[in-house]
Amino acid sequence: MIKAKELETRQSVVYRTLKNALERNNVSQSYLFIGDKGTIMLDTAYLLAKSIIEGTSDFSNCLTDISERIENATFTDLVVLDGSEKSIKKEQILLLQDQFSKTALEVYGKKIYIINAIENATTEALNSLLKFLEEPSSDIYAILITYQIDRVLETIVSRCQNLKFRPMSIDDCVKESKELGVISEDAEIVSRIVNDAKQVNEITLSKNYSSIKSKAIEFISAFQENPDLGGIELQNFYKDTSKSSKYDKSDYGLLIDIITVFYQEVVSKTFDGEELWNTLRDKENVDKISVYLKALLETRDEFQRAPNVGLLFDKLIYKMKNM
């Protein structure tokens, strides 16, 4: 979990807002953290919870017994509901309300609940939560987290102090991905596709990532030699894999994404990959890159709606050759 210094470095506006609230003993009873995945919102929620319970005029130093117990999920007056993997049900909110209607079990007298990915709560759960937020007790604090603000009830948004977290930079995502064990080139490529180091790690560890990346490189190399060869390479790959249960639509989307990153890098050259990647990049004709990227981005936009990926690949090659 993060400490105050890291929060200050990565989310300076959020850091200053919360630090001022702690210093002035003016912490809101309900916060809504808004941002993208990978933006340390959950870690910040834990840091704020530690600081509120410790009752100091600054952030927790994360070295106390309280901090350790919170990290080990043994602090009874902190409840965390996580909607990132499964939806939050009304019953969970009612159970939370019942628990917090009673006297605090810990000597500190403060009760805090964190709800991660609140957008994944059922409508019934959100309505129950709204009633809880409308009648706050002075010893209860709520920290809500959303990655999709448009899916949160406006009445809940208006009941909370909203704090917006800026997206994680590519450099930070690459750094965290490497710390998780992702090799440099893969960290650089996939961090330009998703903005979450954990997701980067999951993608690069997935069973099809290596073959998808290899096929993207093979397509680029063949297309440089002859666009028709590139088209054949792409179609053969689709024919060979489309009937296999090992591949799904997301794999083909990732293929397009990696190819897109390559052509973006031909222009920007923001990182050096391994020898083959660099050789192909430096060999590419920059005059047609805008055409290629337009075709790729249009294809990606159509991707989820397209019933026939093979036909979409045909259209992609046609656009790259003729636009």
Q: In a few lines, what is going on in this structure?
A:
The protein has 323 residues and is α/β, with parallel strands linked by helices. The chain has 16 helices and 5 strands. The chain folds into 2 domains: 4-164, Rossmann fold (3-Layer(aba) Sandwich), CATH 3.40.50; 206-322, Zinc Finger, Delta Prime, domain 3 (Up-down Bundle).
Let me know the average pLDDT.
92
Order of helices and strands: HHEHHEHEHEHEHHHHHHHHH
Beta-strand percent range: 5-15%
Number of helices: 16
CATH-derived topology of the largest domain:
Rossmann fold
Features:
single chain, 323 residues, alpha/beta, Rossmann fold, Zinc Finger, Delta Prime, domain 3, 5-stranded parallel beta sheet, 16 helices
Task: Describe the 3D structure.
The chain is α/β, with parallel strands linked by helices. The protein folds into two domains: 4-164, Rossmann fold (3-Layer(aba) Sandwich); 206-322, Zinc Finger, Delta Prime, domain 3. The protein is 57% helix and 8% strand. It contains 16 helices and five strands. It has helices at residues 4-10, 12-23, 41-54, 65-71, 90-100, 123-134, 154-159, 170-179, 184-190, 197-205, 209-225, 227-241, 249-268, 275-283, 289-303, 309-322, and strands at residues 30-34, 78-82, 111-116, 140-146, 161-164. It has a five-stranded parallel beta sheet with strand order 2-3-4-1-5, with helices on both faces. The longest helix has 20 residues, at 249-268. The mean pLDDT is 92.
